[in-house]
Amino acid sequence: MSSNGCCKYSCETASETLEWINAIVDFLRPYSFLTDAHVVNFFTDRMWEAIDKEWMDCLRKEAVENLLQIPAGVVQDHWPASLKKFIVTLSSLVLPRQQQDLQTVLPGMNMTSLNSVLSTGMNWKKKHEVEVLSAVVDSIANSVGANAIIDVGSGQGYLAQVLSFHYQHAVVAIDACSHHGRVTDARAEQIKKYYAAQMRKSVSGNRSLPVPKTVTCNVMSIDMLKALADTPLHKDNVSLLQSSCNADNGSSLVLAGLHACGDLSVTMLKTFMECKEVKAVVSVGCCYNLLSEEGFNHVGSQCGFPMSCGVISAGISLGKSSRDLACQSAERWKCLENDAGLHNFELHAFRAAFQMVLSVYYPEVMSTSPSIGRQGKALRRRQQRVVPNSLLHHKENKCSLSEINSHMTGSCSHKKSTELETETTSITNENSSNKATKCERSEFIGNYPLFQKYCLSGLCCLGLEPLKETDIHGIWKQVESFAELIGPYWSLRAAFGPLLETFLLLDRLLFLQEQGSSIEAVMLPIFNPALSPRNVAIIAKKLTQM
To answer: What is the pTM for the complete model shown?
Structure first.
């Protein structure tokens, strides 16, 4: 067994970044059949036949624990040479995700553990992210002499409150959800009481406490975000920024975003370039599946991909399936327990077989629901549960085909990325102790009673009655012998996830580098990838007045 070596590419300059991008483009082109695939059509389109037969013959015999290592670039010595070369080459093009030693990159950074008051309500993942990112943003804000920080897509205000109360910055927290704004305000008041009590005990008892100001708006464009930066915003007759953000008063702002969704991360970078008051940006993106893309669902300069002239010139498009795939995390895959990975492969097999049922017996549903597969809400919290009663018993509870797939496979289109992980929804918790070895896999996947439950649940969810002629058992018998191939196929396909994410991030970095020497831009993995798979921050500063 061996793992991928270090990436041989660099992105310190625009020319190096473009070289890396072109190498990725050259590698991706022959495999568009795999990156563009909808796994729900695995059986209907006999997708396994597009993969090298020697590879599939080898991998169908492989232990699930080894399949789960493929996205991380781990190969087995006994695999065909061509398969090992494919995985190693792919992995050599992926941005390394090990957490950077930030003290060497930002020597003045001062990171401390959050106290119990500031960290109230945070899970370990969020606490880690906020501790690290707040320290990074504080360092960058100090280096550019920022008057204020704008937290874009602030959620419940965790980052904004740490920057405000702990690091003493003026902060504006922007989020599209008014409920988040109310939660942020209420939480800030509780934190303020704690810090006010602390100050009364010290010599700084009369000092005013900075409290983050919340703004509820849907940042749909660069102009909107620029307007928030260029205009004095008011709440309760108190100026948010103390002075107007315009060219005359020398205002200096920093844009910060912790997992700003889809196009929002792109909008931040473009606003940084177009708004002279914004001196720096720190952006950690996510939800690539929600990006708008030139030629698909958007036309014009405001699309989320591509951003850079270099990628535009390369003439490659991704599409929804590839952008979905970019959300796959190699870290989450390799951290999976074997039985959890096996459950997930089983659910993919069930979903693909259910597609066969629909295409044979309910073609009208297929024709009216073209977007099938991976566009549902994040429902992973239902892990290790029987299919929800609302699906089994409430026929009035209609939903789309995509929502069925969310229930059954734990797919995601919002804050949580589309990853194969332990929190996947399971149709049953039976056999959960089964170990995912090859000898047990066929019996585990070939469980017709579970598939029958799945189908009946899915039909109910769509508001459909089982037809008299519906032969669920017959469909299962057609696909049963190929069901074990879906694990190898999905593992090979998921290996492209980290590569596609690297490609999207390099496009954003190159966009900044193409602006010339007045911009300093870097791309750093700032979080522990095992805790936070979307761990790459793009950090940029203006070195001269633009």
So the answer is: 0.84
